[in-house]
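Consider a protein example.
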Amino acid sequence: ALNGAQAFGPYLGGVLYDKGGFSLAFWVPGVIMVFCVFLEMTVPHVNTLPTVTEDNDAKKVYKDPWIMLAAWHCAACQVLLYFHLPTMAPFVERALGEDIVWTGVALLVNTSTIILSAPPLGWLIDKFNPYFFVVFSALILPFLYMFIGPLPYFGIASSKLQLLLVLALLGFFVPMGCTPILLIMFDLYKVRNRGTMSISASNTIVSLYCSCFPLGAVIGSFSAGIVSLYAPFELSTGVLGIIFILESIFSIVFCWRVVKMKNSAKYITEDTPLLE
């Protein structure tokens, strides 16, 4: 549902902006959101809270540096998904000669790839070791992001096909780096807490995992706006790809250490989501 909204949002926003100006792109979704509030009031309430809350278990999640590091990698991947959004429309107009509607279509390709690849990617992550997918995406993402402009030093001219292809691949490899993180966070908690995990702890881990997505979006969009004052789109995205190499090295070392920690643990239960 989230990716579906992200897929069609940029395109519809571009169409509304083209037809009715800046304000119409906010009035239409605003009215729809107000309608949804009243619609959600009719949904029956189901109490899913645990009868006994374990505050200490929830605090353990935030105090565990390994879990926080895993969450950070998810946020870092989201930075790559949002860094180019604020400045891509001016770049498309300048370098490719297309309007904001075409930019919306390009972003639609990006997020549609997420939707289409989600079922097979989820099946693969569940079937094989999730650490493999984190490492594999970490090897691809920095070099992929260098070509979104592309980086001027490559001597490659910008083209519509090149931009659409990179955006489509980002829609596949960014989720590949983010989706397994939730399973890894569960495993880390079990490894470091004698193989047990309460409902309070699992709920806290899920909420922490979900918060990584808007965190990465804020960091990516905000930093892009500042960087755009000093560097063109091609250079800023390419340099971010180079910087992300450090994150890739960190994630590979992190996965190696966590797998080693997991293999030496004595308290892993049979329902651990991490596959051998």
